Amino acid sequence: MKITSSEKIDLWPDGAPFAENGDGYQPYMESFLVKTGKPSGAVIVLPGGGYHKKMITYEGRDVCKRLNEYGLNAFMLEYRVSPNRHPAPLLDAAESVRIVRRNAARWNIRPDKIAVLGFSAGGHLAGSICVHSGWAEKILPAKDNVSARPDAGILCYAVLSTQAFGHPGCYKNLLGENPDKALLDKMSLELNVHSGMPPVFLWHTATDPVVPVENSLLFATAMSSKKVPFELHIYPQGPHGMGMAQGDSCVSTWVDLCIGWLKKNAFL
Known about the structure:
- This protein has 268 residues and is an alpha/beta fold.
- It has a single domain (2-264), classed as Rossmann fold (3-Layer(aba) Sandwich), CATH 3.40.50.1820.
- It is 33% helix and 20% strand.
- It is built from eight helices and ten strands.
- The protein has helices at residues 57-69, 88-102, 104-107, 121-139, 168-175, 181-186, 214-225, 253-264; strands at 2-3, 7-10, 28-32, 34-35, 40-46, 73-78, 109-119, 152-156, 200-205, 230-235.
- The longest helix has 19 residues, at 121-139.
């Protein structure tokens, strides 16, 4: 298997939409492609950082390279963060899925096997495009009608709720001061799970001091009630922001478990 060099792909060559109150940042993806005999799946990686920065090394490029080792194509998304506000990040995630789908034949990718993988606040964004791809398409329809719905979601110690167990700093960065309650509720993803969303793999540690494990538990419970397929792993101990958890023989098993889940979902 040959891993090709990384390429920078601008999301919005003509300028990013909903940028009026932002900082002018132009989001992009970095590609990490593999050469295989037949088309395989792709994973778009969304690093965390509280919607005010991004951990692009250990929650970004390193993850993409690890996915390549398993034969998966990978992309790291450099989405917009504060002072940019919603819906800018959601639209960046939507367009990243569309770009991979549009170029599937050129990159030897299956257009029906595109996953999003996010850590912490990046997990909220990955979860958002899983739950709200239809909303994103209404906000900014694609001229070519290419779908923004991913085919799977992978949520790693993700911020998923805006309610009692949420992370207020993330939502302040995403929505600004004193957001409308209706919008806050819509961004509380466990309240918006629906049967048309893709299957999801989740993992969390029970002792996460930054993003409580209830975020994943509530989201999984909501998926169960809507009959959405999911796989959930809760590890007994571990801090927030572990990435691939190299050096922790217990938590690091999430990577192989996730690859197994992707295989069961025909990504490989």
